[in-house]
Design goal:
Layout: H1 2-48, H2 52-78, H3 83-99, H4 103-127, H5 136-152, H6 157-182, H7 186-205, H8 253-270, H9 272-282, H10 284-289, H11 294-297
Helix pairs in contact: 2-3, 4-8, 5-6, 5-7, 6-7, 8-9
């Protein structure tokens, strides 16, 4: 037993000496050179994270990588043999059409991006006030539905756009009014308005005029008039006079979204109203002490 203990002590001593030599080697020949690479990178990110925008962007990127990593773990558990091939498809398929110059894929990305940018602006604006605008789905649905109705009535695109903005703002106003007047949680009211708008639009859709319904497919609407569509940046007309579907989504909407984003940034950063919103969101008690009416801002 005594000999066994002595052998254990000798083994641990040799192991400790080995790792000390490895550490000394790494410190002398590896870290000595790598620090010239990693130290500047660390200092750069330390400087970069002083900016709120950089922290927001990096947090979004980190969330994307976490999602990809979790998805890879699931694929690894379900199908270990093909998990790396699946990861490659996951990372490359979304850019395949774009890299090949496929206008249909590019226009689809732009078309999906535009309302998401506008919805993101709406949500971020509410976040500055400390509110979670989960009712954006209902607001977007109501705005789109009213725009569609007015386009079938022959209204020009700018009228349809204005009506859509008013319709979405109305749903947001109702949720904000309940919060300011009765302190109803905006998450609960937002979810309820989402379903109210969903069923209301479906109910109205059952009583639309017959000429607004596609005669070949009763489950979908007829083609909108060109006057009701946003101006297209690319155009290629088909034989029936309509724009090629590959170019439907390449509209001025993306530029409108960018302009609105710049306007909102200016309001939040350089106006009294924007300062009040941020103060109410960061510390409502300090805002109240400063004489700011939080309910009116909501």
């Amino acid at each position: 037993m005594k000999a066994f203990k002595e052998s254990i002590k000798v083994f641990l001593a040799k192991t400790s000496a080995f790792f000390k030599k490895v550490g000394s080697f790494l410190n002398k020949y590896v870290w000595h050179y790598l620090r010239y690479v990693f130290v500047p990178i660390g200092k750069f990110f330390s400087w970069l994270f002083h900016f709120q925008a950089a922290r927001s962007i990096m947090s979004s990127i980190i969330c994307v990588f976490i999602g990809i990593f979790v998805g890879f773990i699931v694929m690894l558990i379900r199908d270990p043999a093909n998990c790396f091939a699946g990861l490659g498809v996951l990372l490359s398929s979304g850019f395949q059409g774009i890299s090949e110059g496929d206008y249909d894929a590019i226009s689809h990305v732009i078309g999906v991006l535009t309302p998401m940018v506008l919805a993101g602006i709406s949500i971020s604006f509410a976040f500055k006030l400390g509110l979670f605008n989960i009712g954006i789905t209902g607001q977007l649905t109501m705005g789109a539905f009213l725009s569609l109705i007015f386009s079938f009535m022959g209204m020009p695109w700018y009228v349809c756009l204005l009506i859509g903005m008013v319709g979405g703002a109305l749903i947001g106003f109702l949720s904000g009014f309940l919060k300011a007047k009765f302190n109803v949680n905006e998450v609960l009211s937002g979810i309820m308005f989402n379903w109210i708008v969903y069923y209301l639009c479906g109910l109205i859709g059952d009583y639309l005029p017959s000429d607004w319904i596609d005669s070949s497919n009763k489950t979908q609407l007829a083609k909108m008039s060109q006057n009701g569509r946003l101006p297209t940046l690319l155009s290629e007309n088909t034989a029936d006079g309509y724009i090629n579907p590959a170019y439907y989504n390449v509209t001025a909407g993306i530029f409108i979204a960018i302009i609105i984003a710049v306007i909102i940034w200016f309001i939040l950063k350089y106006t009294k109203f924007g300062f009040e919103l941020k103060l109410c969101g960061s510390n409502k008690f300090a805002a109240k002490y400063a004489g700011i009416n939080q309910n009116s801002n909501i």
